[in-house]
Design brief:
382 residues, alpha+beta, five-stranded parallel beta sheet, 22 strands, globular
Length: 382
Amino acid sequence: MTVTVPGPTLGVVGGGQLGRMLGEAAAPLGVDIVVLDPTPNCPASAVADQIVGEFTDPDAMAELAARSDAMTFEIELADPDLLDELAAEEGIAVHPSPDALRTIEDKLVQKRTFGEADIPIPPFHRVDDAEDLRAALDEFGSVMLKARTGGYDGRGNVPVTDSDDAEAAIEEVGGPAMAEAFVDFERELSVIGVRGEGEIRTFPVGENVHEDEILRETVVPARTTDEVTEEADRVAREVLSHLPGRGVFGIELFETSGGDVLVNEVAPRPHNSGHWTIEGARCSQFQQHVRAVLGWPLGATDRRAPTVMANILGTVEESQPARLAGLEAPLSESGVSLHWYGKDEVRPLRKMGHLTAIGGEDDDIQMLLERARELRDGLYFD
């Protein structure tokens, strides 16, 4: 492998905040980014060229391929069949592999794949109708009904405990689904893993704090035992070994009350729970993704210091132009970094940015979490 700069151009399907942070990470490497996104002036357009078009538009995708030396995606709405066609027709590498996207984009296929590989997962059932859901309730007692495709940040997830609610739950999900047994978990964890050219690396295990199925904070190191973090890393590496292609994968996990580790869901791209790596790790998940997709050597995944990431969500009752205020405190705080995603409109609970707080090795991680929350909660939209 010969690496030179200026480097190649990387085409990215999707131009949201992940595409924006990919562009920020690629620039120091001399790598240019071109993104395809249907929203004019998408967040990534501040740091990358944008092609305005739908993710399933063959002409727009062909233009992206023609302008790129390699391609990737930052959203699961990318069409794996179209990516395969472009790879063949244009002779362009696409990573992670479209086959990995096929496995992951359908939660039922994802769970079956991991189950067949003896990767620990919660029990689950395919659900096509209310009778299927009632059968799952009879077996598991209570379930999380999940849309097989398209759901994120709690959307497409419906908790169900009563068989009388089966029809309403099916209607709310609005399509093919699966029912997963509720897990008696102690905490939610995640591992950001990266597959390079012949190598696999993982970042330290993070602890994720959710509310209403939306990630609020990630704490690194996770507040758990060494045995659990070692098992989480082992399970994550096992997951990576069954997903083809190069790139970053976000692996969400449950730590059960008995100390077991189960795979919740996997994302074939940089992940919200890995944003802490921008300031908190030697090489961020975004630069790792660029390196991996291009087949370049991977960077170090060591953390620099205890780190807390706190999401900035839309604290509004209805949609309005995005204007964030209350920034004086976080901007004045040593060890705190602000990331604004550049979205023009704020909506209720929409992810608009995040804060990262870095502590010292001897600092109390709980106090660091509370400080990050205090600074984040002092922000508001006017």
